[in-house]
Amino acid sequence: MNTDLSLLQPYPFEKLAVLLGNLNPPKELEHISLGIGEPKHPAPSLVTDVLRQSVDLVANYPTTKGSQELREAIADWCTRRFRLQAASLTADNHVLPVMGTREAIFAFTQCAVERKPGALVFSPDPFYQIYEGAAYLAGAEPYFMPTLEENGFIPDYDAIPEAIWQRCELLFVCSPNNPSGAVHSREQLIKLIELADKYDFILASDECYSEIYFDEANPPVGLLEVCQQIGRHDYKNCVVFHSLSKRSNLPGLRSGFIAGDAALMKPFLLYRTYHGCAMPIQVQKGSVAAWNDEAHVQQNREQYRLKFAAVLEILAPVMDVKMPDASFYLWAKTPIDDDKFTAGLFEQQHLTVLPGRYLSRETTDGLYPGSGYVRMALVATVEECVEAAWRIRRYIESL
Predict the structure, then answer these.
(1) Which residue in 153, 156, 201 sits closest to 181, CA to CA?
(2) Fewer CB within 10 Å: C terminus or N terminus of the chain?
């Protein structure tokens, strides 16, 4: 077996299961989970109707590249959403459908990394654990960039030594960020594009939370959008990942896309023909319906706005927690160690959150950038989120 498998750590939810495994929460309280970022809003009927109508298509093999209809729907959505120059992002050369961003991020890393001594894959810290595992199994090392409150939960790119930049082959941006919800600015993305040019690495922006924001007039800026603004119409060295899981409440559909530099898409398609990850045709058709509709996404955002407003009003008097820039997470400071807070909250209130240190790795100075925080996913109904907030408040008041 591949010896690099030994470098992989347990997934955060495995650690959480161990932490809570021997505890006995009050049975009279129904369990509420804010731990996993799995949207609980109803799936849009315009998608489920298409899935039902196209179920007989399971008799046909899908192609790795996906249908022309799907790729055009994705290219058109990107062009509308990020105000791209017409025909600069094409269905034929710049877009590939993927089976969710987790699969695509892992697979793309295997293609992007040149296996040479000292190769680095940059990742924010705290982070989505796929960045780390994909780096190790591509023969590289992860390089973690702390995202601290004093920097607005954005990595301090100026603090990275030139010798480290010279070893970078792939840098992951997560914007809006998981877990903090912080969004990179246009200026920060321009800085990264300039660094990618200077040190010849690929810039990969994980934007799967980009459609959950709170000001309809100011959606989060995207990497392709910034490329457009600075005249980089070939999107050189730049790719983005998007998903229907959060945008459209369809985590089980496993549907998303990667888009960007055509020179990167062509070899990645070759890889995928061997990788064996073609999207089923009925999923493709459901995905077309989702990418072509914005009404259900706007309704989705309204539900999150209501939840954040209600929950923050309840928690603000007892907890250091702020409205994120975007996403459905609250990244909240804890009055005691985050793992002890999580265990006590579960034991006393039958409520699950995720300790921040489980999303983090130790820095050279012995810090875990995620320690002292918990991640709360406001994915349940408004009523359940309000009930969860009151339980958290009662627990904090009891400490």
Answers:
(1) 153
(2) N
Residues 219 and 154 in one domain: yes
This model's pTM is above 0.90: yes
Nearest to 95 by CA among 113, 110, 76: 76
Q: How far apart are CA 85 and CA 150, in angstroms?
A: 36
386: domain range? 3-42+296-398
Q: Is residue 302 included in any domain, yes or no?
A: yes
CA distance linking residue 155 with residue 12, whole number of Å? 22
Question: What's the average model confidence in pLDDT over 4-21?
Answer: 95
The answer to whether 209 touches 245, Cβ cutoff 8 Å, is no
250 shares its domain with 316: no
Q: Retrieve residue 292's tokens.
A: 């072509």
Residues 26 and 76 in one domain: no
Question: 349 near 126, Cβ under 8 Å?
Answer: no
* pLDDT score recorded for residue 366: 81
Q: What is the CATH number of the domain that holds 119?
A: 3.40.640.10
Q: Round to whole Å and give the CA distance between 274 and 367.
A: 41
Contacts of 58 (CB under 8 A, 6+ apart): 280, 281, 282
Question: pLDDT by residue (tens digit) across 205-228?
Answer: 999 999 999 999 999 999 999 999
Burial class (CB in 10 A: 0-12, 13-18, 19+), 25: middle
Residues 126/147, Cβ–Cβ less than 8 Å: yes
Is the preceding omega at residue 335 within 30 degrees of 0, hence cis? no
CA–centroid distance for 358 within its chain: 16
Angle at 124 between CA 119 and CA 127, to 5 degrees: 110
